[in-house]
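BUG: 3D viewer hangs when loading the predicted structure for this chain

Environment: internal workstation, default settings.
Expected: structure renders.
Actual: progress bar stalls at 90%.

Input used:
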Amino acid sequence: MNLSLVIPVYNEQDNLALLFDAIYQTMKSLGKTWEVILVDDGSYDRSLSILQEYAAKDPGHVRVISFRRNFGQTAAIAAGIDHSDGDIIILLDADMQNDPADIPMLLTKLDEGYDLVSGWRRNRKDNAVTRNFPSMIANWLISRVTGVHLHDYGCTLKAYRRDVLEGFRLYGEMHRFIPVFANSVGARITEVVVNHHPRKFGRTKYGLERTAKVVLDLFTVKFLVSYSSKPIYLFGGTGGLLMIISAIIMVYLFVRRIFFLVAVTGSPLFQTSVMFFILGFQSMLMGLIAELLVRTYHESQRKPTYTVRTKINLDGDD
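Structure tokens produced before the viewer hung:
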């Protein structure tokens, strides 16, 4: 299988016919083997029955997964990826704001040697206040914190080589952070401008509250990418800083006691110094425990701490 299209679906009954027409028109021009996996995320309209009709008409290309309830876009994307067979996986939305006609452009970029091609909705057709502006802030923040600079993390339309999607699981709103995880295993990433159309039918499922969820998930992603293999750097560094602050406060108290005869134990700074020292010591101990857990995780599952792009003159050469 060359291509797997993974599409989450949630109450998109009026858009599905347009979506399938666009997909068939695009796929015919590519001349590749392909499948489209549509994940119904607990829709309560006619979306599932429409998907079942298309699956019955074209069992060779159309696969459908139906959730028992609404689990969210990230879970739907994860399920689609888990059940896909293609060497290249393309994600897009079912609301027809992403354009399937852009898929050949993404594949052309992959052929240039990239592992991940991300869509950039430069001329985005959404509400400027509730969608575009919060998204712009979130994109800037994610780029600054992770070091992976993309203009549009929220654009679902992306193309991936399968190997860069292996080795991590998606939770919360983390589907938008896939480029960050892919970058952590050395993926070559680029960005292309794609079409973005105004929504014709239905209504958007996201509001301002999603930005808050993204920011919270960003903390998790930063920890997993930067410190998951060496947690002592985070916990030990924090603990060391607290203990240094504690030592500085204590030196100040003793200098004040010697030269100005001010009691050490009667000052609130003494309790603060002791508290910082204890917290710093505990943080270092947590770092050591985390190091043991990391080693248990890697060694028990024989999970390597590295990724290989190619091998030469070895078994299983790529």
